[in-house]
TrEMBL record:
The lineage of its organism: Eukaryota, Sar, Alveolata, Ciliophora, Intramacronucleata. Residues 114-310 form the Peptidase C1A papain C-terminal domain. This is Papain family cysteine protease. InterPro entries: Peptidase_C1A, Peptidase_C1A_C, Peptidase_C1A_papain-like, Prot_inhib_I29. Residues 32-88 form the Cathepsin propeptide inhibitor domain. One of its GO terms (biological process) is proteolysis. One of its GO terms (molecular function) is cysteine-type peptidase activity. It comes from the Eukaryota. Residues 1-21 form the signal peptide. Keywords: Signal, Zymogen.
Length: 311
């Protein structure tokens, strides 16, 4: 009699688990459909949609499990939720950096008070979305636009299209990839047009002969946290980071990441407790309205390679 009762109980529990799993799977499928509508996602075939749904569901589970832990940051289901980490890396994390022909110029970094909070956010400007374009262009523009405001009180927007069309002779390949250092060398030698003189288009084009009124005299490289803070007291700094763990970042202080440099962002501030604030290039719907906070020190490798222009 007892064994029969256990059998019935076991059957009921199994059926209940199956019902709950069915509801969970159905809910995830419905969530994916809603998510597709929200982000206007379209797939080429039924097979691709099924594959993306499975990736989406795996990412949702990862996000939920991570958020259940006692972390200082929160993840969310964002527009990247149907990409595996490998696919995300291929699409967004193709940062190029080079160290040859560059020298860190420590004597050009002014010695300022390092015990004060630094915040250049009001000069950072609107958050751009690099899409399928390499980040070096947006990094360079964010750096120069912000520091032109800080140092020269000049709020005229610089030309993105000038960099895409005209810096190829310095080793860049438009949206396909390039180096921030190459781009700064181009600006140092040739100057840079303002947006009003060289408007942005949707594609790469032939380099135009226009007035290039903006100039820099040089730039410095930075390779440790102490010099990075010193440089930041003067103006913003573009830095290389490991953004492999940034895919689903929503808010808070991210502390869990590697140090293999694969992305670039604009460093705009540091708190008294050492927490960094950076401006990203994945649109304002990502993270904290396009920004991210990182834990103190060399978190995500941000102290390993930085660049700052000299006017």
């Amino acid at each position: 009699m007892a064994s029969k009762s256990y059998l019935i109980l076991g059957t009921v529990l199994l059926l209940s688990a199956m019902v709950l799993q069915y509801k969970s799977d159905t809910q995830l499928a419905n969530n994916h459909s809603s998510w597709m509508l929200k982000y206007n996602k379209q797939y080429y075939s039924v097979l691709e949609q099924e594959y993306r749904r499975q990736v989406f569901e795996q990412n949702v589970k990862f996000i939920e499990e991570t958020n259940q832990k006692q972390n200082d940051f929160v993840l969310e289901i964002n527009e990247h939720a149907d990409l595996t980490s490998e696919e995300f890396s291929i699409q967004y994390l193709h940062y190029d950096h080079q160290f040859s022909n560059e020298q860190t110029t420590k004597q050009q970094i002014k010695e300022n008070n390092l015990n004060q909070e630094i915040n250049w956010s009001k000069y950072a400007g609107g958050v751009k979305n690099q899409g399928q374009c390499a980040s070096y262009i947006f990094q360079t523009l964010d750096l120069l636009d912000a520091n032109n405001k800080i140092i020269n009180n000049n709020y005229n927007q610089l030309s993105q299209q000038d960099l895409i069309d005209c810096s190829g002779s310095y080793g860049n390949k438009g949206c396909q990839g390039g180096f921030v250092s190459n781009t700064l060398n181009y600006v140092k030698d040739k100057g840079l047009a303002y947006e009003k003189d060289y408007p942005t288009t949707s594609t790469s084009g032939i380099c135009k002969n226009v007035q290039r009124s903006f100039h820099i005299s040089n730039y410095i490289t930075i390779s440790n946290c102490e010099d990075l803070i010193k440089a930041l007291t003067n103006s913003t700094v573009t830095v290389a980071v490991d953004a492999s763990s940034w895919q689903f970042y929503k808010s808070g202080i991210l502390t869990q990441c590697g140090t293999s440099l694969n992305h670039g962002a604009l460093l705009i501030g540091i708190k008294n407790d050492g927490v960094w604030t950076l401006k990203n290039t994945w649109g304002s719907s990502w993270g904290e309205q396009g920004f991210i906070r990182l834990g103190a020190g060399n978190t995500c490798g941000l102290c390993k390679y930085g660049l700052q222009q000299v006017f």
